[in-house]
């Protein structure tokens, strides 16, 4: 099992400025490399405290790449619907070169109606725009004289420069929140997977992962699929301190998410069946239940180590856990302490485990 670090800024500017947030994140990026984490990654969102500090993951990850030499640089995820694929493929190819071939590319559909509205894009087109955007990027990275006659863009022949360092292209991950269909399609295509357990049940996530793995095997792809599962993580020597931080910043996440998903109270889309339930799910959030269900990792190093043992029993030892140590406006010292304690007292128990089972 491997562990990475992810950044999802659920931050009100009144509580922490963007420049301070980025400075702290980049300090954690350097620390993550020194402590042996496998990757750093960040999300793409717009306009609100729910992720809005990161409208362009490539910009942040370019800064991360400049400060590191080993750790993987990962988008988690970029949104093809909001950027022309010629531009997106070029930006990501540049990042693969700047990082000397350390880029993993996670693609996502986006799910907030207000983001689609602001970009003037029909949310019902999200699946088609996503599928076509991923395919255009893949072809531009791996082929010459590409001609594309799609629903949303037409161009060619085009040969992308710069070429990516990794051949035939950087590893591609597909981000899925709740869609079994997306997971199966990713496995069939030979793409890797990013999932977020906080928005789904354990049983549903197990089904998603099972469908993904089965589709990968049936398609006959070589090697092992890579799965990233994302968690917030609070570690302290004192259990009460860790749980107090966890409750504060999980509630901060939920409160800001509630504002971001409020538009699902009026929006409906066949491309997002069941997403109207987000509003009610957020209202019913209970931190203690979430912690007991292992949707958030929090406690002493021993307690977090025990939580991970449960996750391995549920989801297998092969996924990489992508951990957020600085959620919300948490103080930098608390985030650094949690990362160091995790690396020193939790990670050694599990690194390499999948190769031994």
Automatic annotation (TrEMBL):
This is LLM class flavin-dependent oxidoreductase. The keyword Oxidoreductase applies. PANTHER family: BLR5498 PROTEIN, LUCIFERASE-LIKE MONOOXYGENASE. InterPro entries: Bact_Lucif_Oxidored, Luciferase-like_dom, Luciferase-like_sf. The keyword Acetylation does not apply. Pfam families: Bac_luciferase. The lineage of its organism: Bacteria, Bacillati, Actinomycetota, Actinomycetes, Micromonosporales. Keywords: Monooxygenase, Oxidoreductase. Residues 1-313 form the Luciferase-like domain.
